[in-house]
Amino acid sequence: MANERKFGIVKKEWIEDLAKLSKEEGEKLLERFRYRLHEQKNKILEQAFSKKIITKEEYESNYKDMFYDEFGFDGFLQYLDAVMNAKSDYFVTLNNNLIKVRKELENKFKLKIINTEELEKIADKNNKKINNKNNNV
After folding, report:
1. Cβ atoms < 10 Å from Cβ of 44
2. Contact present, 67 and 97 (Cβ < 8 Å)
3. What is the phi/psi pair of residue 90, to 5°?
4. In terms of Cα–Cα distance, which of 51, 111, 124 is closest to 82?
5. Which of 1, 33, 68, 108 is such that its CA lies 20 to 30 A from the CA of 25?
6. CA distance 51 to 55
7. Which run of H or E residues covers position 124?
């Protein structure tokens, strides 16, 4: 039941390279992502059910098919996976459906949900602290 996936940093250059893809190449890449995410769906849910993080009934009545974004990704499954496997303080998302109910989700699953603007503010604040600390040395 161990999770074989590893979380890592997405380099800025990779995002820039993705932005340069033609529409056709981008669509093919998104389709591959969707396929891989669909494969992971059952694994994520099985893990969540076995760890008793959520019941099948609760998932089906409260969360199933409610958090798809414009790219066809289920933000709730991504969030649930992060709750179980990511060692982080935040789940960063552009998914407005998740953002709308984030307080409810945060209270239940104990992982804070933020958007990219909030992440930038946190990074700026941390950078200011580091710069102030370095200036005082």
Report:
1. 22
2. yes
3. -140, 150
4. 111
5. 68
6. 9
7. helix 116-135
Let me know the angle formed at the C-alpha of 71 by 89 and 41, rounded to the nearest 5 degrees: 65
Length of the chain: 137
DSSP 1-15: --------PPPHHHH
Tell me how far the alpha carbon of residue 15 is from its chain's centroid: 16
pLDDT tens for each residue of 56-107: 999 999 999 999 887 777 899 999 999 999 888 899 999 999 999 999 999 9
Q: Torsions phi, psi of 126, nearest 5? A: -65, -40
Rounded to the nearest 5°, which phi and psi values hold at 65?
Answer: 60, 25
- Alpha carbons within 13 A on the beta-carbon side of 13: 0
